[in-house]
Design brief:
It contains 15 helices and 24 strands. It has helices spanning 43-55, 96-106, 111-122, 131-141, 143-148, 155-163, 176-179, 194-200, 234-241, 294-304, 308-317, 356-379, 398-408, 420-434, 456-465; strands spanning 3-9, 13-20, 26-33, 39-40, 64-69, 75-77, 87-88, 151-153, 173-175, 185-186, 191-192, 210-212, 219-220, 227-228, 232-233, 248-253, 257-261, 275-278, 284-290, 326-328, 345-347, 387-391, 412-414, 448-450. Strands 1, 2, 3, 5, 13, 14 and 15 form a seven-stranded mixed beta sheet that branches. The chain has a seven-stranded mixed beta sheet with strand order 18-19-17-16-22-23-24, sandwiched between helices. Strand 18 and strand 19 form a beta hairpin.
């Protein structure tokens, strides 16, 4: 039996799964936490990987390995391969002014023209999450560190490189899925826009990783026998782990909220709502991301002094629409819509709706309405969406499962809890090992289907008030 390993180096932790290469059957797994914060020393990711791999029983018997990772982060290396400064993660919003500046610059001062130019160039419009905006921040705020930066890469690129037997800077690789979230690589053309990288860095042009093919062997594991796959970004890895197909939209409710759809067609949304990312197979993965997701439910549970199970029960006991009570959950600013300094807001509070059940219902409905807006934005780009695959920590909530179909207006399928990013990386590793033209046909995880009448009144009420918040 050949074994493959998949790694998820996420915002919060590193997860390692070891699976049968032929069937996908789980053999063993491990996990280790990452430091909190939006600015992290990359060495912590390698340390967490070592701990998670040890917990998973080691990798000496593994034949192939690939890494899925959090997207967009900025990892800067000097000419010796040393980390220049702590990495800025996707959810670090200090580069929001830089994103606005870059947009205007490409439009010669006209923001609308800049949005069109960026969408045409790389399939997305800059927001604080994307690597290019963080590089502009670095060039302005820390010019000495910008001068020292010889190579810029992404978290999954860096970890794959650190695990490789060849640690020359020229061996750094990335893939289509992760490169498409930098804002200086185009999923439509398959090429870097180094002029945009140079623009972001104010005339500096550091080297970037080579973009490997979806199933290309990119190296071997240091101290082991495993070959290395190119890896990918976390959302592309999750789609691969779920065996998502055209017509599927994956909605992930974790630290961030993500709506991503598998399609053969490149997307370029001039509004910037939908990012025209690539997937891990050669298709495209148009994506909408929100800053506020599972932690909205954490905040509601804390406010009400209950656990998550009780929060779910309370939400399901309240009427649909919570008698007009609406929570717009921009609790940490927001990425979609692009409001990095926004705050949350509550509307329609009355004596009737001043109950724990109403508050719980408003929290769940507000969270889902923001994601429903994301689904409709993807559909507006001409992408067919037939069903929703719901994953992430908050997908385990019965209230989320039961209310999502009505608010999304589509059937919702919930797979069993799992590490789908790591699973997708493992499936890629099996693909690399096989040398086949397509990823192995592992069985799709068992899906529980939920359906409900459309809740148009909930969406309409949310749309009435979502713009009435500070930080617009």
């Amino acid at each position: 039996m050949s074994l493959v390993a998949g790694v998820d180096t996420s915002t919060q932790a590193c997860k390692v799964v070891v699976r049968d290469a032929a069937t996908g059957e789980l053999v063993r797994s491990g996990r280790a936490s990452h430091p909190a914060g939006t600015e992290v020393a990359p060495q912590a990711w390698e340390e967490a990987f070592r701990a998670a791999a040890e917990q998973a029983g080691g990798l000496a018997d593994v034949d192939a390995l690939a890494v899925g990772g959090q997207q967009h982060g900025m990892v800067c290396l000097d000419a010796a391969g040393e980390v220049v400064r702590d990495a800025l993660l996707w959810n670090d919003v200090r580069s929001a002014p830089a994103a606005a500046e870059l947009t205007r610059e490409l439009g010669d001062g006209d923001e609308a023209a800049g949005r069109r130019a960026w969408a045409d160039a790389v399939g997305l419009v800059p927001v604080a999450s994307f690597t290019a905006t963080k590089l502009r921040w670095l060039a302005d705020a820390e010019p000495d560190n910008a001068d020292r930066t010889a190579v810029v890469c992404l978290p999954h690129d860096w970890l794959t490189w650190r695990l490789s037997a060849d640690r020359g800077l020229g061996s750094l690789v990335t893939d289509r899925g992760d490169a498409s979230g930098t804002a200086y690589w185009s999923a439509r053309t398959g090429e870097y826009r180094l002029d945009l990288l140079e623009r972001a860095m104010r005339g500096r042009r550091p080297a970037v990783p080579r973009v490997a093919g979806p199933a290309e062997q990119v190296g071997t594991l240091a101290g082991g026998r495993a070959v290395l796959g190119p890896g990918t970004g976390d959302n592309a890895a999750a789609a691969l782990g779920l065996a998502a197909r055209p017509g599927d939209v994956v909605v992930s409710i974790g630290t961030s909220g993500v709506v991503s759809a598998v399609t053969p067609t490149a997307v370029a949304d001039v509004t910037g709502t939908v990012a025209g990312f690539a997937d891990a197979t050669g298709n495209h993965l148009p994506l909408v991301a929100t800053m506020n997701a599972a932690r909205v439910l954490d905040a509601a549970a804390t406010l009400l002094g209950v656990d998550h199970a009780t929060l779910s029960d309370l939400a399901l006991s309240a009427p649909s629409g919570a008698d007009g009570l609406v929570l717009v959950p921009y609790l940490e600013g927001e990425r979609t819509p692009n409001l990095p300094h926004a705050t949350g807001s509550v509307h329609g509070l009355t004596l009737r709706s001043s109950t724990p059940a109403h508050w719980a219902r408003a929290a769940v409905e507000g969270l889902l309405c923001g994601l429903a807006d994301g689904i409709e934005a993807v559909v507006a780009q001409g992408v067919a969406v037939e069903r929703v695959l719901l994953i992430g920590g908050a997908a385990r909530s019965p209230a989320v499962q039961q209310l999502a179909p009505g608010i999304f207006g589509r059937p919702v399928l919930v797979p069993p809890p799992g590490e789908y990013v790591a699973d997708g990386a493992a499936r890629q590793a099996a693909w690399v090992l096989s040398g086949a033209d397509a990823a192995p046909e592992w069985a799709q995880p068992g899906l529980q289907e939920f359906d409900a009448p459309a809740a148009a009144h909930v969406r309409e009420r949310y749309a009435e008030v979502r713009g009435r918040t500070d930080g617009q």
